Amino acid sequence: MLQTALLATRHAVRDALRAELGGKADSGGAPGGIEKPRVLVALSGGADSLALAAAVAFVASREGFTAGAVIVDHGLQLGSAAVADRAADQARGLGLEPVVIRRVAVAAAGERADGPEAAARDARYAALADVARQLGARAILTAHTRDDQAEQVLLGIARGSGARSIAGIPPRRELGDGLVVLRPFVRPDPSITREITVAACGEARLEPWQDPHNADHAYARVRVRETVLPTLERELGPGVVAALARTADLAREDAEAFDEIIEEQIEEIVEHAEAGIAVSVGALAANPAALRHRIIRRVAEAEFGSELSREHTLAIASLVTHWRGQGPIEVPGITVSRAGSRIAFTRRLGSPRSGQPATADGVAATPPAVEE
User: Fold this and answer.
1) Is the pTM of this model over 0.90?
2) 187: alpha, beta or left, given left = phi > 0 and alpha = psi -120 to 50?
3) Residue ranges of the chain whose pLDDT lies below 70
4) How far apart are CA 32 and CA 83, in angstroms?
5) Contact at 8 Å (CB) between 358 and 329?
6) Which is it for strands 329-331 and 334-339: parallel, antiparallel or unpaired?
7) DSSP symbol at 67
8) Greatest alpha-carbon span in the chain
9) Centroid of chain to Cα 114
10) Secondary structure class of 28 (helix, strand, coil)
11) Spatial CB neighbours of 174, under 8 Å, sequence gap ≥ 6
12) What DSSP assignment string belongs to 206-231?
């Protein structure tokens, strides 16, 4: 029987690894005496990551890579240690080596404003990066699929977070020090869905773990997966998941193009000032709103580590577009004021009496909802 799902996952992995590291087709593999590039699979034991692990094991042996696996045990469920051990056994059975289990502590509910899902994600990626650097790996591969991409787009739309959020899950993300995260199943060609990963596990006679959290409607992502997307497919017709994933691809292309333009402009219009950064009012005014707002957000993030909401951004932009002599604007970690032909960004120590930004009319703006 033709194993079409397995072939699709292998092609996706092969293309991603060749694009990132080169491969047999480009370099003929690693010559004797030269250490082969190492990659690691983030493995949970679920269908998506198990299908990825099988594909990576197959491709690596033929493309001149060495491949291992990392299983992160969050300790959030009873029996999680046994699940991790079983996933490790499956990884070794596929030929992955080394296989590392890393147990992490996750912030309890209520300790973080962005919730337990974000806390678990941060702990997981920190552990993955730590193991990868210890082992000298070049890439961490995760098993997000095009279904995950569609869900991410819907969640981004619901938050009103803008184009960057709608751009969804990037197929590639740099972690620094030459380490990258690759997501072969998010790439549009071949399009790997959850249905394909389940079928791939069946074709490979692998038995995936069923995570009970994936059926818990307390999580927004589960509600999107099991209620919202099926309703959209029923009411609008089939193909909604694929269309949402394409939307992410298009939005990401636009966002990446904007980022390049922004970086070029910032070099020309931003200058260091006493205790902060100054940006030319004229240059900001000459740009369309989309670029002006991105420049403001980029300055805040790059220089002060502050992520501005839409309300914060518009309040700062009002110093350019609706200038009537209003005073400084307070946003998270920054005081922003207009001084002649420049907008000055200064790091703020401590909290102002009101943590809300002033609008063009001097009225405090409503703070944004915290993203998940």
Assistant:
1) no
2) beta
3) 1, 23-34, 108-115, 161, 350-372
4) 38
5) yes
6) antiparallel
7) E
8) 75
9) 15
10) coil
11) 180, 181
12) ------GGGG-TTSHHHHIIIIIHHH
| DSSP SS3 for 291 | helix
Give the Cα separation of 70 and 42 in Å (integer). Answer: 5
Q: DSSP 3-state assignment of 319? A: helix
Give the N- to C-terminal CA distance of the chain in Å, as an integer: 43
Name the helix (H) or strand (E) containing 181.
Answer: strand 179-182
Cα gap 226→218, rounded to integer Å: 12
Q: How distant, in Å, are the alpha carbons of 215, 222, 328 from that of 51?
A: 20, 21, 54
| CATH 3.20.20.480 is the classification of domain 274-347 | no
Helix residue spans in 22-75 (DSSP H): 24-27, 47-63
Strands ordered across the beta sheet of 334-339: 270-273, 276-280, 342-347, 334-339, 329-331
Angle at 231 between CA 225 and CA 235, to 5 degrees: 145
Query: Which residues, 6+ apart, have CB-to-CB distance to 319 below 8 Å?
Result: 281, 326, 329, 336, 337, 338, 343
| Gap between the Cα atoms of 294 and 261, Å rounded | 10
Q: How far apart are CA 263 and CA 267, in angstroms?
A: 6
In degrees, rounded to 5, the angle at the alpha carbon of residue 115 between the alpha carbons of residues 109 and 120 is 85
Q: What is the pLDDT of residues 275-331, one digit of tens each?
A: 789 999 999 999 999 999 999 999 999 889 888 988 999 999 999 999 999 999 999
In the chain, what are the domain boundaries? 4-236, 274-347
For residue 39, give both structure tokens.
Answer: 């990659």
pLDDT tens-place string over residues 150-184: 999 999 898 876 777 889 999 999 998 899 999 99
Sign of CA dihedral 279, 282, 283, 284: positive
Measured CA to CA, the distance from residue 367 to residue 358 in angstroms comes to 11
**Alpha-carbon gap, residue 211 to 76, rounded angstroms:** 11
Q: Which fold has domain 4-236?
A: Rossmann fold (3.40.50)
